């Protein structure tokens, strides 16, 4: 930030706010401070080349990325494409929204004078144009248009134990999905299948009614204009049907596997996936402290009738907890919500308990309520010297939370009960994005005490400032209507937040400065709130920030760490390139590296996708560059610890999925769920790699009806033995000083069929192990296991001996097995398969460098300096003609797959066909901005 900032606070006159300038300059409109340019937006489906969207001549600031431009133009511009009423400039979009907010604020007495309203308008305009923050998507869809002014992305519904209520649940969900939002509800009021109806029959139970709701969501999502349906279904742990609920999606996942193996198209969005039930909702179990204590003690736990509350069955708590973990291990559902923790932080318990959440688990409040969200881009508050501008951040929070409260004055709601509850309690959800990038840029590891301290301080400052401004608003336009009844409870929760702030331990002058201001905000807010009350029952959540994160050009979403160190960047004029995330050089600078060292490390990261063995990089700094996926991925408990650090400073909860490796056990899932409870989280979900069938990348979607059907490859245990006489070769090798021989035998029609490895003295344990290993690999090859599978599993395996080799094509090996299988790949795999695995000869690597750095017109020199093309190109024309081209990446997730040599667990975008990337507990498409949840 280069603007001069007036750090004095907005004042109150008793008849409205006096708004002082923070980002803007008197007499200069925000639009006049930037350079605007015309762009053409043409978005295609890369699989079939069809044009998904086209609008030419749109106007955006020159510093907006191509991706942000495409997403805003296609998602948020209103009016029919090709007509004069279609929006064509970011100015029109921002003006449409900001004018509505300012007019409503003026009408409802928020501003002391028309001049204050004008300043507020300029401040909001500046921040939105500069990508400092963004409202959630429904604001951009609806505000200022002829459509209903729906501003909320998150809804919580209610359903009772009557058929009218159940059918009304289906209807309300449909209306919410149609408007592009998501909803959640708790089904625990519905009688179980073990209870009787008043007519004498047996109740159907909530799981049976979930089928109808699931089918409805699956139908509506297909016709929606904005996004897929997103929903959350919750059941209390003491419900008699809890075991059936736990196993619903796990059983369906087993069904998917059987159908897939039988040849049906069970990919996400596949032709046959609709035959599978319960796939449109996230499922969560509401666990109580009583249940968790029973798990700890190994005691029995009572399941209670819904009408009478009596215990009708007693079960082993530890066994039930195990079933929850096993189901989550199999299919990622159910997640857990910690009921007593949630309600202990409830500001309005006199008005009802909190029983459910929105689909992504960040919004938690009363039934039949909603929450509108907005998120700040944390990287916009990082100074050039690497310090976080806490004062500027606090001022921004003031402005944003004021705008968010104004929106409730004019907002429309899908049902009257939701509108009534929201207007009475005025729940807000301010949050942030780019935390992962901020921590890396400041030299903090995501899983570190220093990183957690900074994240906790920022979260505390955000919520403390939001509640302080809420108390100030209560003095101007009144406290929320439900405050009088809940005043004591609300004050108690404010004291809990302030007490948690006092417990933050700081490690650096950066987080110490943030914590110091946060403490002042909580103290000031408590004083004002005790006198005025508060305007809002809730203030903050940590949302996924999927589409709006891309709109703000954020490297990371919500509270998430970086996905990977390399990313996929679209270029002006078309095309794309692989670049190293810009937070990497900034982090290296913060850690004290010189420009020459930074350049060398960045070049290494561009080639390898990770920092392991990067030249000049100290090992103690590796952790700063740990990511959600890749060579050095953050441990599952690292994610949990970050959530625990932030949770005490968030009114709601945190949208985040704890990623676990495929090798994780059911016991590991149990430990995560248990630690989440002990650490005070409100909600927690896990995802184990490759636990779902419908996720991995599939090829050949969208073919013509008369095209040849996709072949289904089945691996049967039929051994193809080598003939008595077969071609073979022997390679001598040295790895880290250890000498050995690799003997490889082939089928006459080509293809590796056996290997023998000589390493160590005859009769030694090492020689015996290598003989057994060789026989195992040989038999596997003869049974049809592809060589590329073995290469993907054994390359980069790390153990001694390791180090330099005598092979010019494989100069350094992390182990003997790493060398052997990279050598086998070079000798027996075609170029396109090796390229996907990242295995190249020395000549091919040299050709890549020559091709990437050769002079060419219209080259993005700055981007090229820190990047290499994702598509290896041989240097000579003959090689280019003889070797197939490397499969292209079309998103950061697909780019990461090229580095890892294996498919990432993420769905394909329904709109443009690229692989989506994680955003909280949802997914977002980098190509078109589509999300699988709310943002």
TrEMBL record:
SUPFAM superfamilies: PFL-like glycyl radical enzymes. It comes from the Bacteria. Residues 152-687 form the Ribonucleotide reductase large subunit C-terminal domain. Keywords: Cobalamin, Cobalt, Disulfide bond, DNA synthesis, Nucleotide-binding, Oxidoreductase. Residues 41-131 form the Ribonucleotide reductase class II vitamin B12-dependent N-terminal domain. It catalyses: a 2'-deoxyribonucleoside 5'-diphosphate + [thioredoxin]-disulfide + H2O = a ribonucleoside 5'-diphosphate + [thioredoxin]-dithiol. Residues 879-891 have a biased composition (Polar residues). Residues 723-827 form the TSCPD domain. Belongs to the ribonucleoside diphosphate reductase class-2 family. This is Vitamin B12-dependent ribonucleotide reductase.
């Amino acid at each position: 930030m280069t603007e001069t900032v007036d750090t004095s606070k907005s004042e109150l006159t008793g008849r409205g706010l006096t708004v002082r300038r923070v980002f803007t300059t008197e007499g200069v409109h925000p639009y006049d401070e930037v350079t605007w340019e015309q762009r053409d937006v043409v978005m295609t489906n890369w699989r079939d080349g069809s044009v998904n969207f086209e609008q030419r001549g749109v106007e955006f600031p020159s510093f907006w990325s191509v991706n942000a431009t495409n997403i805003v133009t296609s998602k948020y511009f209103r009016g029919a494409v090709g007509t004069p009423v279609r929006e064509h400039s970011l100015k029109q979009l921002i003006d449409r929204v900001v004018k509505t907010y300012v007019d409503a604020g003026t009408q409802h007495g928020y501003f002391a004078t028309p001049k204050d309203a004008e300043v507020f308008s300029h401040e909001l305009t500046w921040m939105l144009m500069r990508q400092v923050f963004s409202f959630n998507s429904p604001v951009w869809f609806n505000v200022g248009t002829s459509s209903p002014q729906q501003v909320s992305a998150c809804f919580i519904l209610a359903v009772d134990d009557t058929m009218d209520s159940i059918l009304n649940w289906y209807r309300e969900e449909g209306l919410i999905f149609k408007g592009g939002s998501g909803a959640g509800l708790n089904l625990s009021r519905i009688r179980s299948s073990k209870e009787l109806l008043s007519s004498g029959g047996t109740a159907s139970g909530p799981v049976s009614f979930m089928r109808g709701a699931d089918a409805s969501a699956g139908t509506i999502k297909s016709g929606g204009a904005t996004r897929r349906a997103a929903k959350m279904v919750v059941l209390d742990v003491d419900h008699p049907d809890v075991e059936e609920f736990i196993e619903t999606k796990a059983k369906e996942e087993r069904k998917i596997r059987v159908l897939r193996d039988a040849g049906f198209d069970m990919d996400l969005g596949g032709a046959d996936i609709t035959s599978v039930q319960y796939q449109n909702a996230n499922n969560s179990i509401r666990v109580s402290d009583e249940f968790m204590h029973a798990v700890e003690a190994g005691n029995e736990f009572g399941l209670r009738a819904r009408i009478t509350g009596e215990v009708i069955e007693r079960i082993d708590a530890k066994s039930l907890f195990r079933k929850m973990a096993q189901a989550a291990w199999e299919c990622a559902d159910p997640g857990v919500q910690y009921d007593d923790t949630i309600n202990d932080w409830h500001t309005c318990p006199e008005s009802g308990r909190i029983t459910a959440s929105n689909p992504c688990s960040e919004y938690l409040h009363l039934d039949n309520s909603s929450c509108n969200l907005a998120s700040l881009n944390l990287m916009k508050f990082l100074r050039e010297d690497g310090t976080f501008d806490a004062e500027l951040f606090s001022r921004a929070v003031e402005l944003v939370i004021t705008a968010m409260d104004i929106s409730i004055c004019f907002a429309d709601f899908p049902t009257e009960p939701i509108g009534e509850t929201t207007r009475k309690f005025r729940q807000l959800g301010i949050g942030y994005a780019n935390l992962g990038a901020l921590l890396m840029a400041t030299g903090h590891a995501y899983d570190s005490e220093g990183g957690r301290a900074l994240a906790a301080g920022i979260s505390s400052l955000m919520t403390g400032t939001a509640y302080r401004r809420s108390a100030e608003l209560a003095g101007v336009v009144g406290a929320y209507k439900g405050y009088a009844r809940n005043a004591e409870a609300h004050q108690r929760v404010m004291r809990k937040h302030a007490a948690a702030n006092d417990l933050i331990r700081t490690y650096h002058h950066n987080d110490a400065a943030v914590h110091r201001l946060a403490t002042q905000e909580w103290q000031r807010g408590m004083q004002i709130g005790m006198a005025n009350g508060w305007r809002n029952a809730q203030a903050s959540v940590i949302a996924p920030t999927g589409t709006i994160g891309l709109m703000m050009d954020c490297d990371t979403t919500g509270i998430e760490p970086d996905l990977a160190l390399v990313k996929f960047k679209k270029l002006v004029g078309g095309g794309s390139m692989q670049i190293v995330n810009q937070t990497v050089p900034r982090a290296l600078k913060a850690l004290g590296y010189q420009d020459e060292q930074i350049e060398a490390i960045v070049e290494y990261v561009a080639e390898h996708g990770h920092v392991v063995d990067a030249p000049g990089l100290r090992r103690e700094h590796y952790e700063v560059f740990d990511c959600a996926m890749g060579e050095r991925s953050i441990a599952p408990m690292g994610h949990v610890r970050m959530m625990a650090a932030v949770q005490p400073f968030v009114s709601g909860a945190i949208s985040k999925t704890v990623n676990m490796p495929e090798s994780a056990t059911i016991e590991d899932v149990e430990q995560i769920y248990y630690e989440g409870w002990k650490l005070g989280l409100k909600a927690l979900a896990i995802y184990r790699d490759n636990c779902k069938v419908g996720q991995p990348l599939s090829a050949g979607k969208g073919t013509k009806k008369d095209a040849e059907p996709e072949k289904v490859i089945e691996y049967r245990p039929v051994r193809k033995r080598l003939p008595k006489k077969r071609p073979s070769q022997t390679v001598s090798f040295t790895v880290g000083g250890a000498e050995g021989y690799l003997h490889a035998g082939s089928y006459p029609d080509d293809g590796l069929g056996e290997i023998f490895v000589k390493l160590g003295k005859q009769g030694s344990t090492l020689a015996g192990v290598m003989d057994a290993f060789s026989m195992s690999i040989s038999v596997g090859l003869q049974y049809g296991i592809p060589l590329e599978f073995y290469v993907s599993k054994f390359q980069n395996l790390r153990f001694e001996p390791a180090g330099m080799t005598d092979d010019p094509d494989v100069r350094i090996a992390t182990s003997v097995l790493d060398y052997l299988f990279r050598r086998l790949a070079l000798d027996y795999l075609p170029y396109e398969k090796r390229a996907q695995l990242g295995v190249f000869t020395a000549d091919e690597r040299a050709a890549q460098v020559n091709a990437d750095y050769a002079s060419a017109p219209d080259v993005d020199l700055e981007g090229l300096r820190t990047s290499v093309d994702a598509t290896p190109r041989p240097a000579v024309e003959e090689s280019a003609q003889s070797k197939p081209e490397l499969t292209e990446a079309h998103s950061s997730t697909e780019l990461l797959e090229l580095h890892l040599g294996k498919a990432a667990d993420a769905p394909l975008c329904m709109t443009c066909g690229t692989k989506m990337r994680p955003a909280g507990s949802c997914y977002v498409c980098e190509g078109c901005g589509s999300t699988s949840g709310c943002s």
